[in-house]
Amino acid sequence: MNYFDTSVLQQYFWDIVLQGIKEARNIVSELSSTDDNIGIIGHSSGGFIAAGAFSKVSEVVSAIVINGSCAWVKFEELYREKDGRQPMSSKERISLQEHDPISRMNFEGKKSLLLLHGKEDCTIPIDSQRYFMNVMSDKSTECLQLVEYSGVNHHITIGMLQKSKEWLDKHLGQGCHSKG
């Protein structure tokens, strides 16, 4: 499958994301019998999957979304506008809203979410993540952070990997609300 072919991307993107969440749920159910601190990390479409799994699978206590989105309806609106396509139909909007992490986020207990995004990302523009953070502005910055990287397009940097490691060390080891 050519992910850079716009028609392929438009046709299959959400199916791939939703299938990835199902697969993540299966993996988590296998892991949860041996580990109670499960984290997930994803880049690009994997970031969408990580966001969806974090919002739908209670056993996932920490997630890192790199150059993805946690506000799927907003992302789809912006992406269609960028491509000059028609807005979503009401049926498409309702279907996407059912899965949109923004309406399902739960930061109870040890849950924590880190968003890492290149400011110059042309593939998944940062705007939907900024929108997400605005909607979630009442959440603790210990549990939810967006780090923006200047001069970075749709790439993973060494700085992003370092921040990811630090985040997981802290939040899988102690949890979001622990002192230490």
TrEMBL record:
<feature type="domain" description="Peptidase S9 prolyl oligopeptidase catalytic">
    <location>
        <begin position="24"/>
        <end position="172"/>
    </location>
</feature>
<dbReference type="GO" id="GO:0008236">
    <property type="term" value="F:serine-type peptidase activity"/>
</dbReference>
<dbReference type="InterPro" id="IPR001375">
    <property type="entry name" value="Peptidase_S9_cat"/>
</dbReference>
<dbReference type="InterPro" id="IPR029058">
    <property type="entry name" value="AB_hydrolase_fold"/>
</dbReference>
<protein>
    <submittedName>
        <fullName>Prolyl oligopeptidase family serine peptidase</fullName>
    </submittedName>
</protein>
<dbReference type="Pfam" id="PF00326">
    <property type="entry name" value="Peptidase_S9"/>
</dbReference>
<dbReference type="GO" id="GO:0006508">
    <property type="term" value="P:proteolysis"/>
</dbReference>
